[in-house]
Amino acid sequence: MRITCPLCGERDRREFYYVGDAVALRRPSPDAGEAAWDDYIHNRDNPAGDTQDLWQHEAGCGAWVVVDRNTVTHAVNNVTLAAKVTR
Amino acid sequence: MGYSGFKVIKEGLFGQKGWRPVWRNPEPKSEYDAIIIGGGGHGLSTAYYLAKNHGMTNIAVLEKGDLGSGNIGRNTTIVRANYFLPGNSEFYSHSLKLWEGMEQDLNYNTMMSQRGIINLFHSDGQRDAFVRRGNAMVNQGDDAILLDREGVRNLVPYLDFENTRFPIYGGLYHPRGGSARHDAVAWGYARGADQRGVDLIQQCEVTGIDITAGKVTGVQTTRGVIKTKKVAIVTAGRSGQVAAMAGMRLPIESHVLQAFVTEGLKPVIDHVISFGMGHFYISQSDKGGLVFGGDLDFYASYAQRGNLPMKEHVMEAGMTLMPMIGKAKVLRSWGGIMDMTPDGSPIIDKTPTDGLFLDCGWCYGGFKAVPASGWALAHLMATGESHETAAGFRLDRFRDGVGLMDEEGTGAQHNLH
């Protein structure tokens, strides 16, 4: 699997650290309550198909990127800087 | 039809013509007392123990493909009871005892081989941790022997004891651990359940779960509607998709775990050996292939095949540990889909829907759990109460943080297990 970093270009997957579902970009407010925080931290849609997850270009520029990816085919469809994703 | 040595000899003399199909292939009835979704190891053992321990025989196992065609057919077959934390410890201890009596109980040769497991350690700190784990195992009533370097060398002299980065300080030896024939386990439980009247329905995919006023009333399938008041979701690898039919989101992320097997070789590795620092473990199948694997690929996947970096890592770790296997040719590799929970431990519990039960989240350790998981889920479905060995496998433990079972001690977060 290769991921195209918006800053560095196409790189080997090994340069990236996988953080998990891009749910991390939708962090609830501190006073959202226990249920919202439980859901945010633990529960996942976990789709078999298109998903969006968060990676860090750890061995490259260090940027956080949002990767649109297919969990069944491993195709990487789109990569965006996390800083530019509208929350 | 019972199996025996006499039967094998008799059939050998008369052309093997007396063997019959091991289970029926029934049409689904319109209603059952309970339905188990998923005809893998856990689903089949649940059906068997529902029938055997609780007398529930008007039940069905619904399988979308063939029996035993999921992770029970693609794992590395290790059986062990070397867990550390309360909650896990008693469960896997119970499971190992069931493994030890399984062949007699099922009248089926599951090729259970208690060849012993050796977990290697490579530093004083790791030795301390293994001493503690070994004591926990002994306290649970299981067996653990601390081996020093020479003790390990006596058992497995072919390891590289001179490795500079990870010198072998010793190992924790678990003699009752070992391996079993994975397909035979599924087939044995299937046969036992079928003999007790359970309907094993293959090529029957569940497409919906009917819920009325918070209670399960039946399931929609590709072979029609089936009514029931109890449904168990036992579909590890696809738990999220099936639970979504009941409107649930689970604390599970699916990951791919790769495994490898070499061409058949003469007997060379007599034990199961794990090299934790290299995320590597290996055993030799009865057919002669070296069966080995490593860690997850570490990103969400349903692909049933892994990526090359982890293959490279596993091969490197194998060569580091035992250079003698360098000329063995890898025959094939494959990937299985793991239900990864935040704390790395499973879930056997009721759900907010009355009559709906969950058995999932087995991470990369579902095979050894097959008997005790079925035992505990059958108990829960029949009595409404958690079995004492599986009471810790609560669905809501993540929410309140009480009773988390994080064996690795890394924290209950998805990307840490």
Care to describe what's here?
The complex is a heterodimer of chains A (87) and B (417). Chain A contains one helix and six strands. Chain A is mainly β and 87 residues long. Chain A has a single domain (2-84), classed as Folate-binding fold. In chain A, a hairpin with a 3-residue loop joins strand 1 and strand 2. The mean pLDDT of chain A is 94. Chain B contains ten helices and 19 strands. The longest helix of chain B has 18 residues, at 89-106. Chain B is α/β, with parallel strands linked by helices. Chain B has helices spanning 5-13, 41-54, 89-106, 124-139, 149-155, 182-195, 239-244, 308-321, 370-383, 397-400; strands at 34-37, 59-62, 78-79, 117-121, 145-148, 170-174, 178-179, 199-201, 206-212, 215-221, 224-227, 231-233, 253-264, 272-275, 280-284, 289-300, 330-340, 347-350, 356-360. Chain A binds chain B through residues 1, 12-14, 18-21, 34-35, 38-39, 41-48, 51, 53, 71-74, and chain B through 238, 240-241, 249-254, 298-303, 307, 309, 342, 398-399, 412-415.
